[in-house]
Amino acid sequence: MEYSLLAAARGDLPVALRLANQAVTIAEASMKAGQGGDNYLASALVPRSEIDRQLGRADDAVADATRALYLLKKSEEPGTFSCDLGHAYYTLGRALQTQGKPNEARIAFRSASENLRDTLGPDHPDTHQAEFEATH
Q1: What is the distance of C-alpha 129 from the center of its chain?
Q2: Measuring CA to CA, which residue among 129, 124, 125, 123 is closest to residue 109?
Q3: Each residue of 22-35: b (16+ CB within 10 Å) or e?
Q4: Taking the C-alpha atoms of 91, 97, 99 and 105 in order, what is their torsion angle to the nearest 10 degrees?
Q5: Of the candidates 66, 72, 33, which has an alpha carbon nearest to the alpha carbon of residue 48?
Q6: Mean pLDDT of 52-72
Q7: Which among 87, 81, 78 is positioned nearest to 112, based on CA atoms?
Q8: CA torsion, points 87, 19, 99, 42, in degrees to nearest 10?
Q9: CA–CA gap between residue 112 and residue 68 (Å, rounded)
Q10: Residue 22: which CATH number?
Q11: What is the number of domains present in the chain?
Q12: CA 7 – CA 55 distance, rounded (Å)
């Protein structure tokens, strides 16, 4: 996944997607073999969602972010805040914006804001961005 993030930072989104797909495949194989990997899979799905969104694949971006949220929620106590959940909600919000669903996006951004505020703090740049998106 790190190589995928590096490729995305260089602007090579097709390579970033190919590498993200490999990371997801590895995590899924680990899970199928009973070796765990739920959290790793979630941490690969969130950046892959953003890559999908940038490539204009909004439906895939929403699916990846939604799946990541499912996996993260499954591993957390109900009512627990998490920066991982916050980032997944933020990514879902961006994907929903790309799909042309601003109301659903604002709901996702509000959830992102709550999670990020309670874990990273109210002054963190990610919290500020999520709060901005939730109100605009």
Answers
A1: 15
A2: 129
A3: ebbeebeeeeeeee
A4: 70
A5: 66
A6: 97
A7: 87
A8: -40
A9: 13
A10: 1.25.40.10
A11: 1
A12: 13
* CA–CA distance, 91 with 87 (Å, rounded to integer): 6
Q: Which two tokens stand for residue 88?
A: 């997944």
pLDDT value at residue 2: 95
Query: Cα–Cα distance between 91 and 80 in angstroms, integer?
Result: 19
- Domain span at residue 107 reads 2-135
As a whole number of angstroms, the distance between CA 7 and CA 10 comes to 5
What pLDDT, on the 0 to 100 scale, is given for residue 117? 96
DSSP class per residue in 78-134: TT---HHHHHHHHHHHHHHHHTT-HHHHHHHHHHHHHHHHHHT-TTSHHHHHHHHHH
Residues 130, 2: Cα–Cα separation, whole Å: 24
In this predicted structure, the answer to whether residue 38 has a pLDDT above a threshold of 90 is no
Quote the pLDDT of residue 112.
98
* Contact criterion met (CB below 8 Å) for 46 and 65: yes
In this prediction, residue 84 carries a pLDDT of: 94
